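Field: sequence (string)
Field: structure_tokens (string)

Example rows 1 and 2, in order.
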Amino acid sequence: MEITWSIVLAAGSGSRFGGNKQQALLGHQRVIEWSVTTARSCCEGVVLVVNSDIINDTDLPSTEIVVAGGESRSESVRNGLQAVPPEATIVVVQDAARPGASSDLYRSVIDAVQAGADAAIPGLAVNDTLKRVIDTPNGKEVEETVDRDTLMAIQTPQAFKRQMLEAAHAHGQDATDDAGLVEAIGGTVKVVPGELAAIKITTPNDLKIAAELMGLNL
């Protein structure tokens, strides 16, 4: 029987947001609370990863385990992974800054791993024309147009066989997402349909977009 735990990452600096975006109010609760609530509804337990200076705050969402983040996203994942109980067989990694990710999206990636994939990630088709550009003395210039049919925008939550995620992080490398580390060691990564509402909040304007997609009032 599979046992699923989630690592919710909330240790980002929020430099482009201008503050702690995970604590920003979105509808009737904070961004971090949306993300933790969804994770708890789909998993047996949650490890919340936060900045070390707030790890003892009493207003953090209720989770089984709280740990301090690292100097990079990947280090924060490793800190969270070390705290996941040994009986967990599937680990879901979620960015707290994606509060609109639904329980259905969680279940999609979990189901794909239960069906045999080493990892499962949500993806959205790229609709804009994409061009590779280079820097020149006169500014940026187009080098080539990229075939968007072979590209997808990848989101979280991302689900993994626990042993595969541990193997992917064994050498302490950094990546923009954990699936990239799994790919690097030859793991199979299945893509499931993503959700527009699972937008990552990076700037204050993203908070407004998330609220609209989630049907909320700021």
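Row 2 begins here:
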Amino acid sequence: MLKGFRCETAKCPVEKKQRNLAPGMHGWRRGRKNEYAVRLREKQKVKRYYGLFERQFMGYFHKAERMRGNTGEILLQLLERRLDNVVYKLNFAPSRKAARQLISHGHVYVGGRKVNIPDYTIKVGSKITVKGSEKSLKRIKEQLESNPNFTTQSWLQLNREEPEATIVALPTRDDIQIPVEEQLVVEFCSR
């Protein structure tokens, strides 16, 4: 109904096989990416996944560089242990941005003390609780009930009745489910 009479012929502009090209008259000229572009794309993917700015990301990279072990895995481990990411992984918030807002508004406590810094790094054995006010508890419990089949990762231990969690171990590379090659990120940032 919506297509014209011309679409019944071979000249149909809607169903031409050239439609999978980039827009514009030179869409077919797009070449393959060079090594720099591939490494930059991987770094940008990690930055956008965790919602970081360039300076924050490079700070984490330099911290990971100074630590012993595989720099790429340590970098991802540091990013995974950020408080906003942990709150998101515990299903206290529907997204990382919402988790960041929840933390900055003072709804999250770590070790019994209010923490309003989203990039606070969680240590093993830390206990994350929710502010005791009705509003905070209601909001978190609604989020937990909205996804009843949600399972926490092995390095986190969640108590759903009283919304609180404990960090039982450091996250491993298997726990970090980002489709990224951390070696390319390290190669890009090391140059």
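free_text_note (row 2): The radius of gyration is 22 Å.
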